[in-house]
Design brief:
It is built from 12 helices and 16 strands. With 382 residues, it is an alpha/beta fold.
Amino acid sequence: MAIPYNKLRVRIDLDAIRHNYRLLNARSGNAFAVIKADAYGHGLIPVARALAEEGARTFVVGTVGEGVQLRESGCRGRIISLLGPLDPEDYEALLPHRIIPFVGNWEQLTRLQDAVEASSAATPEQPLEISLKFDTGMARLGFHLPDVPRLLSVLAREPRIRPVMASSHLATADEPGNWAFVQEQAEIFQAVLDALRQGGVDVEGNIANTAGILAHSALHHQGQRAGIGLYGCNPFAGTEQEALGHDLRPAMEVSAPVVEVHPLAAGQSVSYGCTWHAPRDSVVAIVAAGYADAYSRSQSNHGGVCLHGRRVPVVGRVCMQLTAVDVTELADAGKSVQVGDRAYLLGGRAPGRVTPEELAGWWGTITYEVFCLLGLNPKEYR
């Protein structure tokens, strides 16, 4: 549910997402569209429909419930749930909605066996398809290479469950200084695939994320999970490999209205705690955005917004629904700021445009969190 009580406007450029999908799919050959967590805040259903029109056939969500929502919207493609089934409702939803779950522990596998036993919908001819999740170094979720013989034995006894994929997650694919660990994971994953196939389980492999698609072609296997790159973020921004993702286009723009403009005398403070004082006679604008709108309080006295194509700094503490910015330089340049003008928290016109990477840096976080949080606000599409 979108935040219902504010004046933020989140605009999503679906053409940019289409462009990014074409770029990533051309690099890899079979890019899965990762649209988990409401498409990283960009909107599950609108993004899925745009990518389906662009040719995407495999969609990756987080929870099974999100997969049900996607299927009921009319999606005909393959739907993969990264978290897999976590509660009874999830197990019951897999078969009727044709969702392929990640399965990474013995309890899940046992409960899946119980689910197909209780269902008349699963047969050896129409089995429940699953993706076996393997831990190759993330140390988070998944089976391990030594588990393969037991897995083969268990699966051989239940023809109504069919592994069609084997998957893993890369921990450092976007860190050029730590690519040795990527190679270690790659070798373990290849050993997993070899062991499964030698045991008669012929699965599609997928381990590559956006960084894997752009920089690690040996890890493309039969499918690749295009995530943050779909939304225009370069996983190599700020590194020596930045050129690998330079064609990606950000798709989210966030603005809020100016609700007050007034002068401050030199030395006068603004906002709670009197943490900023005007260094000279100044003009401040108050923007209707704050931490209740998922605009981080960590940006107090830090970073800026884009107004009339220029960058203006945030001054004082970010409040629950209001943020002050210093527009003195705009006033000095004859660019008067008025009540009702849009201040761009993310995006805006050059040269003052705020990039996702900049905003994440000001917040002390990553672009993923910026998108997921700001995407909680009401969205418009173009």
